[in-house]
Structures are given as C-alpha cells and as structure tokens.
Amino acid sequence: MSSSLHHPHSERSLAAAAGLTVFAAVMLLIAGFLDIFRGISAIVHDTVYVNTPHYVYAFNLTGWGWIHLLLGIAAVMVGIGLFKVSTWARVLGIVIAALLVIANFLFLPYYPLWSIVVIAVCGFVIWALCIVRNDV
Asked: In this entry, which stretches build a coiled coil (predicted)?
C-alpha cells in the first residue's frame, strides 16, 4: 500500500499558474508583434500617426519607430521564453511589459487609442506574471 498525498486544491493552483503564464506569454507575443508592426510603420513614415508640434517628449517619428521595433522584438523573444516556463523570462517579461507601458504612454499624442490598448494589455501581462509564484 502506497500512501501518496493528493491535494486537488494544489493541482488547481498549479493549473492556474500554468494558465496565467500561457496567458501572459500570448499577450506579450501579441503586444510584441503589434509593436514591431507599429515600429516599421513609423520608420517608413506612415500617415497614420499624428504629428505633434509642441510635445515635451518629441522624437522624430523614425526615432519612435526604432524604439517600438526594438521593444517589440524583445517582447516576442521573452514571450517565447515564457512558454518554456523560465524564471528569466518571467522577470524579463515584467520588465519588457513595463517598458512597453512607458513607451506607449510617451507615444500617446501620436496614436492615443492604440497606445491605451497596449498599455492595458501590458498591465494584464504584468499582473499575470506577478500574481503566481510557483509554475508547473
């Protein structure tokens, strides 16, 4: 007779941990790819963006494009790492999502609605990566 402890509550917690990590990975991948597209669009001077003549954090549109392109590439790489349940990916995921929030906050005058959407998505990513300590 083997006596093994079986706790359904702990299994449910582990499933929730895995689910939140997958959620964060998918959302970070989406935010990363969209930031890559936004960066490319800004680099080629797309007419989608509003020119703001008197903005405190004004870079030229090409500069913002490179910032979003690099952050998007980093977000995609970290999102892939989150599927492997790596501790480094969890920590970098929080850092990259926070940098995406800052970059999109500063980008608000150029494309307000989309910046707010990306800020919200990154907020969910940060929440999902911070809420659970133990992963499967």
From this structure: none
